[in-house]
Specification:
By secondary structure, the chain is an alpha/beta fold. The chain folds into 5 domains: 88 residues, no CATH class; 38 residues, no CATH class; 110 residues, Nucleotidyltransferase, domain 5; 123 residues; 131 residues, no CATH class. 47% of the residues lie in helices and 15% in strands. It contains 23 helices and 12 strands. Helix 5 links the parallel strand 11 and strand 12. Helix 19 crosses helix 20. The longest helix has 25 residues. It starts with 12 loop residues before the first strand and ends with a helix.
């Protein structure tokens, strides 16, 4: 073995000995140069003072970790005025001063740490025969130095959550290069303003509608164009439509009931054979006169529901008496958002209206339906067949699933206490707003039917939705209408939710107009925020800001 085999050419060393053990490969190297430069004054010297052996780790060879034994020399400085009389020769092409690993192994450790972090990276390094500790990997990451980059001209700014609802930071992305430039510890206007002041070449700033970002951009970079993110504009519009649906919940419920049954989130439509039978036969025998006692869990849910209804009625009663939202919050101990949410609705909302919990048999529903169609309706027999196929599931789970699938197929089990399955719940205002914000060609048939039923129920509601559709088309660059014309129509609208939304757009009109005309958006920034979340969760929330910043900025 020679220096060429280990890629040591040009390092000034020659291999003098090689020992291969069961656990490590030990390579002894000797220096070939006759002189060395003093690190203090820079004068070369050939006066050798002494020798010592230095052990450093290198890239693996022969499926084993490699330990290099370097015979390093000490020299006497030839400069009599130099305060450093004796110095050790430097090895800049191989290892840094006082380092325990070669430069190339340090770079490899840094890449592993950037990709995986401390503990996972240490486990992988051990499998790759480059063992090191988790702390060393994290230290390598924090010592990373980024490649020199050109001054950013087009940047995207967005916030990210250290802890959602509690603490936030700011991410800055170069939109031209698609790379993260910096990570800021908070989202205050002063911090963002200081960063923009330190980067005076910024010409365009794409941001969400956070007021502190707009203020910082206006003060620190008055000549830069601000672009409001289109996704956030659609999000704000959807939230306005959700509040509209909450306020008109009674009208919407009447419209959906008049339009017919709404498909539920779980379950399949009845088979054609079941549709042809009489309703009495499909529904099964009537429930017994003495219903089964309510379970303790159901009783607790009913008590919780009654308390919520009482709070809802009390909020409306105080509001009718002229009490302000702040006064109601202080008296009832509710949050301000909860009081406002109650006041927007005509009836108390129910967040769990008969929804089904996920089951282990959701993936076997097609197989169970096929066996039921073949005539096998015995839960015990189906449980034995599933067990024989290697599926670990309990008999009660199979029995409940078979009962529900029989009811969905119009074949309730012949039991004395068989009850008609409850009607699927009406979709919530939030669900309807998400159905609305989707493009028309992407909506499913039942989603489009629900929205058409809502439009046909109330002329004012239909006009508000038409106005919101125009803004959505404007943001998606599918409408020739000018933003100023829409703002005039929105501010004169009879819908308070859209009127408030239009007033907010007016305050940020220049950035919104740029969002309609400029090709830039915060899409790349959102992608890097998702990657940041992944890195943060990989570290289980135990990493500090310096480590997180290094992993996000310097990772390839």
């Amino acid at each position: 073995m020679d220096a060429h085999d280990l890629n040591l050419d040009g390092t000034g060393f020659v291999i003098t000995d090689f020992v291969l053990t069961q656990t490590v490969a030990v390579i002894r190297l000797g220096c070939t140069g006759s002189m060395a430069d003093c690190p203090r004054c820079g004068r070369p010297s050939s006066r050798v003072h002494s020798h010592y052996t230095r052990t450093i780790a290198d890239l693996p060879a022969h499926d084993r970790p490699v330990a290099l034994r370097l015979v390093v020399r000490r020299f006497r400085c030839a400069n009599p005025d130099c305060p450093r009389a004796i110095f050790c020769e430097r090895l800049p092409d191989l290892v840094a001063p006082r380092a325990r690993t070669t430069d190339r192994l340090t770079d490899l450790h840094r890449l592993v740490g950037l990709a995986l972090g401390g503990e996972p990276g240490a486990r992988l390094a051990d499998r790759l025969d480059i063992p090191t500790s988790p702390d060393t990997l994290l230290r390598r990451v924090k010592d990373s130095e980024g490649e020199p980059a050109p001054a950013p001209r087009f940047v995207g700014i967005d916030d990210w959550a250290w802890r959602k609802g509690r603490r936030y930071g700011t991410i800055v992305v170069d939109l031209q290069r698609g790379r993260v430039i910096d990570l800021l510890p908070d989202r205050d206007a002063a911090t963002v303003k200081a960063w923009l002041t330190a980067h005076p070449g910024v010409e365009l700033i794409s941001r969400d509608r956070w007021s502190d970002y707009a203020q910082a951009a206006a003060e620190a970079a008055p000549g830069a164009r601000q672009v409001a993110d289109r996704w956030h504009l659609l999000k704000n519009l959807r939230e306005a439509i959700e509040r509209l649906f909450e306020r008109q919940s009674g009208t919407i419920a009447q419209a959906l009931k008049a339009a017919g049954p709404v498909p539920g989130p779980v379950g399949d439509p009845p088979t054609p054979a079941a549709e042809g039978r009489p309703e009495a036969e499909r529904s099964g025998p009537p429930p017994p006169d003495d219903p089964a006692p309510t379970s303790p869990r159901r009783q607790a849910e009913q008590v919780k529901r009654r308390r919520r209804v009482e709070r809802f009625d009390r909020v409306h009663e105080l509001h009718r008496q002229g009490r302000s939202v702040r006064g109601i919050v202080k008296e009832l101990g509710l949050s301000r958002n909860a009081v406002r949410r109650y006041l927007r609705r005509e009836k108390c909302p129910d967040w769990r209206p008969g929804r089904e919990e996920p089951s282990k048999l959701d993936g076997h529903r097609a197989w169970i339906d096929r066996r039921i169609a073949e005539g096998c309706t015995n839960a015990a027999e189906l449980h034995r067949e599933l067990t024989a196929l290697g599926h670990r599931v309990s008999y009660p789970t199979v029995r409940r699933c078979v009962t529900k699938r029989l009811a969905a197929a119009g074949k309730p089990r012949p039991r004395a206490n068989a009850a008609k399955p409850p009607a699927p719940p009406l979709p919530s205002a939030k669900r309807l707003s998400f159905d609305w914000v989707r493009r028309r060609e992407e909506r499913e048939a039942e989603q489009q039917a629900r929205l058409e039923a809502i439009r046909g129920r109330d002329a004012g509601l239909a006009a508000a939705l038409d106005l919101a559709d125009e803004f959505a088309a404007l943001i998606r660059k599918q409408s020739p209408r000018a933003l100023a014309d829409w703002l005039t129509a929105g501010e004169s609208s009879g819908c308070p939710e859209l009127k408030r939304f239009a007033e907010g757009i007016r305050r940020d009109e220049a950035a919104v107009r740029a969002a309609v005309t400029e090709p830039w958006s915060n899409g790349p920034v959102e992608g890097h925020v998702n990657r940041l979340k992944l890195v943060k969760r990989q570290m289980f929330g135990r990493a500090g800001f310096a480590l997180l910043r290094a992993r996000v900025i310097h990772a390839a």
